[in-house]
Specification:
By secondary structure, this protein is an alpha/beta fold. It has two domains: 243 residues, Rossmann fold (3-Layer(aba) Sandwich), CATH 3.40.50.410; 36 residues, no CATH class. It has eight helices and twelve strands. This is DUF58 domain-containing protein.
């Protein structure tokens, strides 16, 4: 793996995640960012609509009743005490739960140019976490690698944020490539998310979606019914295209199943399989009506966003 790191990026090794890298995204928490490869109609930060009905208001103060005020907001105890009609005023409630499902499983421990996909996923999750905190939302989520999972219920202020960042760092540590009786999968985590999530939540799914199948799609339909979901696909260029000179020499391929050599004409098959795989992922989220954003592990995260001029 070749890593090119620059002084103006928070990345240190590209293989592991350090807490100070994740903390550095605090300086981006107030920016109204837009992904360069964004889904139509969806922004990273700013106003959002919740899939939940209700006034969503919290009490602010009491004032004298005025013509046109809703009689249902009359404060009868103050009215009785003063002898004059008073009405309650409310602040619009801004806080809501934000859940981040962060995939750090084996397929994410890969990178050909800059950083591992797992590292880029943690940086993205950190950015989304800081922006959730800046809005005053409660942050929770599910973080999993191949052997472990951390389930975090939503908490407000800095407590939820720091807990999420610490767990991201811990579970991003490289795991041995071996089978386990307790292997975690995207399907298992979506099941867990469906039990954990609260109606009206905002959900961010961060993964390469290599494990996305029909069972996952059914759970997405269920979760999306009463929540707002954004999907973030983290990829590496080598997953989509082989280098132009890859087949000029005999190319050896190593995997868990063994080793071999890339056959002549294999580049076209590789490209076709990659295109078909991506089309299935795209079509799944289009069918669900879920915005799908694409983030690459081959360049710094913040270079993949537009920052509107002030």
């Amino acid at each position: 793996m070749s890593i090119a790191l620059f002084d103006n990026t928070p990345y240190q090794t590209g293989v592991d995640v350090h807490l100070n890298e994740l903390l550095s995204y605090k300086q981006q928490e107030k920016l109204q960012l837009q992904p360069t490869a964004k889904a139509a109609y969806q922004q990273l930060a700013g106003n959002y609509l919740a899939k939940i009905k209700g006034r969503g208001m919290e009490f602010a103060e009491v004032r004298h009743y005025q013509a046109g005020d809703d009689v249902r907001t009359i404060d009868w105890s103050v009215t009785a005490r003063t002898g004059k009609a008073h009405t309650k005023l409310f602040h619009e409630e801004k806080e809501r739960p934000v859940f981040i499902l962060l995939d750090l499983s084996d397929s994410m421990i890969f990178g050909s140019q800059f950083v591992f996909k797992s590292v880029q996923a943690c940086h993205l999750a950190s950015l989304l976490s800081w922006q959730a905190k800046q809005r005053g939302d409660r942050l929770g989520g599910i973080i999993f690698n191949q052997q472990q999972v951390s389930e975090l219920k939503p908490r407000g202020r800095s407590k939820g944020l720091m807990r999420f960042l610490h767990q991201s760092q811990q579970l991003c540590m490289k795991q041995p490539f071996k089978s386990s009786n307790n292997e975690q999968s995207l399907l298992l985590q979506l099941k867990r998310l469906s039990r954990l999530v609260q109606t009206g939540s905002q959900i961010h799914l961060i993964s390469d979606f290599s494990q996305l199948d029909e069972s996952c799609q059914k759970l997405l339909t269920l979760i999306n019914r009463h929540n707002q979901i954004n999907a973030w696909q983290v990829s590496d260029p080598l997953e989509q295209h082989l280098p132009k000179n890859a087949l000029k020499a005999q190319l050896q391929v190593n995997s868990l199943q063994g080793s071999g050599y890339f056959r002549a004409g294999g580049a076209a098959d590789y490209q076709d399989a990659a295109t078909l795989r991506q089309q299935k992922i795209d079509n799944t989220f289009i069918k669900q009506g879920i915005p799908l954003y694409k983030v690459c592990a081959s360049m710094p995260l913040m270079e993949q966003f537009h920052v509107p001029a002030r």
